[in-house]
Amino acid sequence: MFRVWMRNFRVWQKHIQASLIGNLGQPFLFLLAMGYGLGRQIPTIEGLTYLQFIAPGLVASAVMYSAAFEATYGAYTRLSTQGTFEAILMTPVSVESLTMGEILWGATKGLISGLIMLAALPLFDVIPSYWTALLIPILFLEGMFFAALGLVMTATATNYEFFNYFTSLIITPLFLFSGIFFSIDTLNLKARIAVGTLPLTHVVSLARMLCYGKIGGQWQLHMIITVVTCGICCWIAVVLMRRRLIQ
Amino acid sequence: MSGWFMNEAKSTKTTRPIVEVSGLTKHFGDRPVVKGLDFSIFPGESVGLLGPNGAGKTTTIRMLLGLVRPTDGHIKVFDIPLSGHLRRIKQRIGVSPQMDNLDPDLSVLENLLTYASYFGIKRSSARDRAESLLGFFALGNRSGEIIEHLSGGQRRRLLLARALINSPDLLILDEPTVGLDPQARHLIWERLGALRRHGTTMLLTSHYMEEVSSLATRVIIVDQGRIIASGKPASMVRQMVGIEVLEVSDRSDELKRLATGLRSCDVELDMTKNRLFIYVKKWCPELEAIALSHRQVIKRPASLEDLFLKLTGRTLRED
Ligand SMILES: Nc1ncnc2c1ncn2[C@@H]1O[C@H](COP(=O)(O)OP(=O)(O)OP(=O)(O)O)[C@@H](O)[C@H]1O
Ligand SMILES: [Mg+2]
């Protein structure tokens, strides 16, 4: 498991710049455009400026984009054209270890993007609280969830086109509707429930709480949902990867 | 007495097969591809698995590695049932696959080191081993090269080096020289020959009969998922084909006339549109006459290729 992770890490070291810029571009641009641009015309939300309000959620979205991207386009290349997974399965490494290694790797890439976003926040006058340290393992769990979700797609994909659907039908809606850009508390009940079913919502809420050290009442619920969805998704990823790789 | 006993014990121990397959069957969907194979491979043996394209050779190998789930049948490797012990078994197998799956993201040396890590080999000893393997396969000065810059022959040699990184007790080679020029092929044969003489147990598939003749101590011929013959290559050829082959080219009526003239000889005949193959079990005067007098006749020793074609059909015959 660690060895599969290590293989990917070695390869990543070689292309470190390109991959970082590629994955961080979007959240940073949103922070600029929405935070500075739109934010000036929006009153404070929950006692935060608009830029402060969206910054923690954008950190979570950076994790999502990186992890999901790695586990789809990256992993699919290793699965199909390069035959890397097959080569690995000819060694004592099992499908379970391979899949978990890929999930941990996707989560690592996600976390790296998230940490860079966090580290850059002071540049935008957003000063994270000490509680933010607790956010790091949560971001890693989020990365595992999206890496596992990506591998589920990879295990069922027949070509790269497939991932365009994944991005436009799953990832982009999550980005827009998980409470990064608006306050969930002001929604009516039905809308709140709908938003609550989205996995990213809970990480965004936790990120905002921890970033500003204001731990709200529902943090336990958010934690449980994050952990449970992550576990379920990893399990599905393993099952589908086994089906895909062992004929 | 005790000496005899010890010998006995030793010989029963060494005759336990490394690979033992029985009733091995695989259906892809409802298409049967492997239909009940039974075979064993003993320590020190080098077994050639032969068969036309699509015979099921690669599928059989993939079942030995747990990459394809058998529809039916039993597999034991190192005297351990495959299911449930895959990890332990694969620790001791080296594979060079038919489809090149070297890691294009890594250099030559890194390919070997990363592969070694999957076997849990410590990095320092992996490096020593990788370097000596690169030397053995004449890749010593290529260790920093990226995979895309290697020629087909160099890639194949790297695949073989990779297969040996864990000092395997069983080496599985699926078409180790496919698509290579004669020089590259001979280099690989020479190296594999050295391994065989060293006592490495091998299972090898190939479409180069010369390769199989020189490397395999025993061959198994499969066709459409079934074993149709097996044994030592030289004696199989002698028994089933003969000692020599005459190839006569002529018009078909002329060839028919020749064939009738050979009825009293111990030969087998195979006629295509304008060629007559005479498989000679024993020489007779009529044959001497053809060999001496006919304009277009080639005389050569019977080979594994003749046996293969005899058993699996001469495709041109259908044309
Ligand atoms: N994953 C798969 N799904 C469906 N059919 C398959 C699969 N793998 C192999 N086959 C089919 O099984 C048959 C046997 O294939 P296999 O690769 O074992 O043949 P082979 O003896 O290795 O042939 P070659 O000499 O061409 O390498 C072929 O008809 C092939 O199309
Ligand atoms: Mg094959």
Compact overview of the structure:
Chain A has helices at residues 2-14, 16-37, 50-79, 84-89, 95-120, 132-156, 161-177, 189-196, 199-211, 219-245. By secondary structure, chain A is mainly α.
Keywords:
heterodimer; A: 247 residues; mainly alpha; 10 helices; globular; B: 319 residues; Rossmann fold; Alpha-Beta Plaits; four-stranded antiparallel sheet; 12 helices; 14 strands; binds adenosine-5'-triphosphate; binds magnesium ion
How would you sum up this structure, described in words?
- The complex is a heterodimer of chains A (247) and B (319).
- Chain A is mainly alpha-helical and 247 residues long.
- Chain A has helices spanning 2-14, 16-37, 50-79, 84-89, 95-120, 132-156, 161-177, 189-196, 199-211, 219-245.
- Chain B is of the alpha/beta class.
- Chain B folds into two domains: 19-229, Rossmann fold, CATH 3.40.50.300; 238-312, Alpha-Beta Plaits (2-Layer Sandwich).
- In chain B, the strands form three sheets. A six-stranded mixed sheet of chain B has the order 6-7-8-3-9-10, sandwiched between helices. A four-stranded antiparallel sheet of chain B has the order 2-1-4-5, with helices on one face. Chain B has a four-stranded antiparallel sheet with strand order 12-13-11-14, with helices on one face.
- In chain B, helix 4 (108-118) crosses helix 5.
- The N and C termini of chain B lie far apart (66 Å).
- Chain A binds chain B through residues 3, 6-7, 10-11, 14, 82-84, 86-94, 245-247, and chain B through 28, 62, 65-69, 86-88, 90-91, 93, 95, 97, 99-106, 110, 114-115, 117-120, 166.
- The complex binds adenosine-5'-triphosphate and magnesium ion.
- The site of adenosine-5'-triphosphate has 11 residues of chain B, from helix 2.
- Magnesium ion is lined by residues 57-58, 98, 174 of chain B.
